[in-house]
Amino acid sequence: MTVVGVGGYVVLGFVSMVLLVLAAEVVVQRVVRVAKYYGVSEAVIGLTVVSLGTSLPEIAAHVVASSQILLGVGDPRILSATVLGGNIGSDVVQQTLLLGLVVLLVGGFRFSNKFLLRGYAPMIGTTLLTLLLAWDRTLTRVDGMILLTFFTSYTYALYTTRSDILQQQGTSPPSTAPRRDTVVSAVGLLIVLLAAHFLFRSVGFFVARTGLEGSLIGVVVLGVGSASPEMVTAIVGLREGAEGLSLGTLIGSNITNPLLGIGLGSLLSTYHVPRPLVYWDLPMETVTASILLVYLLTKDDIGVMLGTIAERFERHTLQARFETIEERHLGRVGAALLIVLYFVYLLVRVSYFPEDF
């Protein structure tokens, strides 16, 4: 590794990050305007079009890895572990760290029933389905077909019942030239993906020689790197006042990644599933998402219960606060807990699940 090589990758990483931010800002602006022009909810756009676009790095990684497995290039176990670890790692990052950051920056967010039922619940179901199919430590072509079938069905159902999932957000006016804005957003999204690709290459240059297992490199490095488009798109969405697009992108990507990414890769070549993904990563992802969903759906009831307890101890001020807790509202405390949860997940992963097979 030469000094010139290191410097070159540092410059590549910096330029890639700048392009990533600028291009993502253009994409979000144009997509929001086009969505408003056609009267489509920003959350629906985030759950489908943008989430599919920002998931292209994961999808492309599966196609490349599966092609190499079919051609006999490289160890199929290492290829499987790395690409699966990157996919699941990206989902965990988005579901905990990035979701927490988005809500924390907004100051709190109210989830509608429609969003929870059509976005968040399918995300949990997707993770659980992937876990069940991978439990025997292999993902076959039949498993891949099942995942792809669920992805097609979900996308069709979402578009055929595409009433507002979240209230329209933001102050951007509807587009006056939707075709032009669509083309500009498509070009911008391509730049986002290319920038993310080169950013990931620069990161991988410095960590590829650590000697870590394939799935751990995937979870820690590929997961964070491949989640960068969703991260930037979500943050820029907040700047535009389009919280619905931000949340829709994160949740939609967590549905697209396993169903389309892992489904396509499994269909092409089959995968060897590393032990940590079955016994820690996927279960942790499923449990944490389920806990948050139950919390959001029952928060109002919990507030009433806590208010009753506070009343018995004559803590009337505390009682009033508990009783006015807004149902399905995730505040700064809940968002901070999601962020802490990610680092706890990562610490346990590195400490107790270092080996793949």
TrEMBL record:
Molecular function terms from GO: calcium channel activity; calcium, potassium:sodium antiporter activity
Source organism of the structure: Natrinema ejinorense
Entry-linked InterPro entries: K/Na/Ca-exchanger, NaCa_Exmemb, NCX_ion-bd_dom_sf
Main localization category: membrane
GO biological process per UniProt: intracellular calcium ion homeostasis
Protein keywords: Membrane, Transmembrane, Transmembrane helix
Record localization: Membrane
Name assigned to this protein: Sodium:calcium antiporter
Regions crossing the membrane: 6-28, 37-56, 92-109, 116-135, 141-161, 182-200, 215-238, 250-271, 330-348
Gene Ontology terms: cellular component: plasma membrane
Residue stretches making up the Sodium/calcium exchanger membrane region domain: 10-159, 183-349
Membrane topology (UniProt): Multi-pass membrane protein
